[in-house]
Write a sequence for this structure.
């Protein structure tokens, strides 16, 4: 697998980026965005231990995230009242242990089955916990959730976690540590057998492994990291609500991992960054942000079911062989109809929302800086025409790109036969 | 010395249909034992019973003197029995090398370890590399198993089966669907890997069977009608009538 050959460079780049990001973008908005990204990276990576690595489609992963977040919020509150003292820096470890403990109990039931029954049980347990939140309002805090204050506990080196920048570096450090640990996990005997069980659980039995045990252990480890993310969420937002354990949150982490790509280790990282960005950025611009995310998801499922990472992997051989330049003109040409069609679609969606929410399209509406009147047919017709032009243009130009792809594939194959790859088993593993 | 495998009055029914009807079979340690019989006789079913894939309807099976009746497949495997499948059954999205390495792990005592780096386990690597070379797939080590040719997948199937170093090996039609030269290759491999182990092999190619096997059992309609050395089996009237008579004239 190609990721095995990538070595240490991506990690160093990531660390450098994590340190530098808040220096480059130091607005409060960016900082809170980065914090959410960091939390979601851990969460999505832990989810992919289930889906991508072991083939377990969970609809209840937020349970371990959310319950850990609740416990940590209560822990922070208890510390605030002086019940005990513990460094906030290490609170994610507690969150991880909470996640792990629930993973041990609930995971035992969930991993009794695989495939569709597994998915159904995970869904059922998610519902169960969400229902439980109404039975224990003291713990879950009812509608309002549990608010807390992270500025408690001993302050080492003047770190109080009052300023958001300190929380950012806390999250960044935990995200890096967790990512390294989860990556290392993929290189262990259990991590490898997880892949084997995903591929062919029956055969795994005939080489000495109990697939159910493999699933259970991976589930526990994944719950641990979900718990770490949950604790960081409690620290970051200083509030935990029922939504954090609910089905929507479980769906959201599936969404992130899937968009990024479950077939490679780094896919969910990309997914977490992108989806978090879209969520935060779009929700500031448009009321229809959820619709856009949904559309994006739909397009991915239809055209790139392996997620963004699969698109990257698709181009990697061409990039290595310095053939990517040949594809570039094709992509640039395609970009034109895509942007035209996209602009038209956005215009239509925004006008529909505007009409629906403003009581019949009264008043002035602005689209990409242009003032439009949603009551006149002109704007609608223009947007519709843009969509049609976009689709037709796309169809017209796509064969060009495909032909270039054929050229590149041929060139790659020719290069391969000239220099057969060294045939040493397990190189780079 | 106890038998490598001992089946006593083994029966298996699917619903009302009895497929295995009281099989008694003893496989001696270190022998190459072939099981032959017409299509649908229950040969694969017998393997599935021995390896724990199916539960017995009645009877008992012991491996090297220890009872393994209705144990889970992974338990039976850990006791030193490994099997291949008639229909290739590998890990399609793992590389050839990874396939073999996964099959090595348990036997080297690594269990469910998540604290050791798999690339640093020298004995695992050496063993896996050795197996990959033995099955003649060294040049394909980094190829995904699902992308191999049919004959290569059959070779990998054997590799995964023997990688754990089990001393009792069950091979279900290892040469099925292979060309003549591929079959020769596979038989040489089977001969080599069965050195110093117990081998039970289901095989339709009579040339292979009679040259390879120390003893042969003939299974017809879920019953062993004869067991013996190749000359004994050739001379056996019931066998000729039930099976060989037609097979040799094919
Ligand atoms: N899981 C099952 N459920 C129901 N019937 C089965 C099952 N497995 C096998 N059988 C039946 O048992 C009989 C024996 O099958 P089996 O595969 O053991 O034969 P075989 O001797 O291996 O034949 P072949 O030489 O074709 O591989 C067949 O009639 C088959 O249909
Ligand atoms: Mg068969």
């Amino acid at each position: 697998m190609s990721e095995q050959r990538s070595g240490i460079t991506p990690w160093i780049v990531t660390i450098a980026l994590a340190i530098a990001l808040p220096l480059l973008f130091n607005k409060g908005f960016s900082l809170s965005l980065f914090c959410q990204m960091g939390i979601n990276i851990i969460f999505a990576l832990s989810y992919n231990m289930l889906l991508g690595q072991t083939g377990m489609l969970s609809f209840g992963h937020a349970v371990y995230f959310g319950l850990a977040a609740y416990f940590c919020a209560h822990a922070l509150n208890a510390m605030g009242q002086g019940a005990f003292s513990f460094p906030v820096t290490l609170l994610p470890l507690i969150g991880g242990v909470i996640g792990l403990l629930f993973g041990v109990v609930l995971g035992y039931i969930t991993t009794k089955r695989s495939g569709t029954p597994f998915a159904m049980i995970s869904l059922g347990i998610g519902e169960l916990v969400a229902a439980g939140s109404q039975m224990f309002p003291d713990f879950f805090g009812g509608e309002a959730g549990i608010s807390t204050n992270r500025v408690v506990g001993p302050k080492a080196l003047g770190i109080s976690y009052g300023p958001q920048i300190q929380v950012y570096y806390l999250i960044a450090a935990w995200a890096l540590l967790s990512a390294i640990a989860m990556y290392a996990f993929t290189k262990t005997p259990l991590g490898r057998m997880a892949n084997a069980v995903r591929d062919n659980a029956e055969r795994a039995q005939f080489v000495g492994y109990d697939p159910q045990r493999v699933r259970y252990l991976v589930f526990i480890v994944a719950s641990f990291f979900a718990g770490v993310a949950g604790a960081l969420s409690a620290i970051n937002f200083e509030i935990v609500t029922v939504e954090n354990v609910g089905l929507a949150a479980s769906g959201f982490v599936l969404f992130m991992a899937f968009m990024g790509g479950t077939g490679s280790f780094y896919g969910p990282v990309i997914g977490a960054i992108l989806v978090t960005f879209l969520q935060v950025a779009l929700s500031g611009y448009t009321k229809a942000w959820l619709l856009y995310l949904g559309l994006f998801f739909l397009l991915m499922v239809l055209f790139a079911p392996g997620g963004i990472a699969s698109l990257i992997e698709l181009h990697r051989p061409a990039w290595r062989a310095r053939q990517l330049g040949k594809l570039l003109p094709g992509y640039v040409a395609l970009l034109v109809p895509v942007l035209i069609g996209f602009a038209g679609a956005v215009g239509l969606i925004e006008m529909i929302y505007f009409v629906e929410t403003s009581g019949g399209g009264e008043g002035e509406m602005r689209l990409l800086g242009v003032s439009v009147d949603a009551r006149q047919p002109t704007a609608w017709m223009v947007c519709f025409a843009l969509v049609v032009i976009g689709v037709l243009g796309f169809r017209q130009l796509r064969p060009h790109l495909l032909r270039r792809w054929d050229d590149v594939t041929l060139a790659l194959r020719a290069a391969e036969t000239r220099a057969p790859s060294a045939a040493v088993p397990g190189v780079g593993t | 010395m106890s038998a490598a495998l001992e089946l006593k009055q083994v029966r298996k029914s699917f619903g009302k249909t009895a497929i295995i009807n009281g099989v008694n079979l003893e496989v001696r340690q270190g022998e190459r034992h072939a099981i032959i019989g017409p299509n649908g006789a229950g040969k694969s079913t017998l393997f599935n019973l021995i390896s724990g894939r199916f539960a017995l309807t009645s009877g008992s099976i012991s491996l090297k003197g220890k009872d393994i009746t209705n144990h889970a497949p992974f338990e039976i495997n850990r006791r030193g029995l490994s099997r291949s499948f008639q229909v290739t059954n590998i890990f399609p999205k793992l590389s050839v090398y990874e396939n073999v390495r996964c099959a090595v792990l348990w036997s080297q005592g690594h269990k469910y370890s998540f604290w050791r780096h798999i690339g640093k386990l020298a004995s695992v690597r050496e063993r896996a590399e050795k197996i990959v070379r033995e099955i003649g797939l060294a040049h394909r080590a980094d190829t995904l198993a699902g992308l191999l040719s049919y004959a290569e997948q059959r070779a990998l199937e054997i590799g995964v089966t023997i990688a754990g170093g089990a001393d009792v090996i069950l091979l279900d039609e290892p040469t099925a669907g292979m060309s003549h030269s591929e079959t020769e290759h596979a038989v040489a491999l089977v001969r080599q890997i069965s050195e110093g182990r117990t081998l039970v092999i289901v095989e339709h190619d009579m040339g292979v069977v009679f040259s390879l096997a120390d003893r042969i059992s003939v299974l017809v309609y879920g019953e062993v009608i004869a067991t013996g050395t190749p000359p004994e089996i050739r001379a056996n009237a019931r066998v000729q009538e039930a099976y060989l008579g037609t097979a040799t004239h094919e």
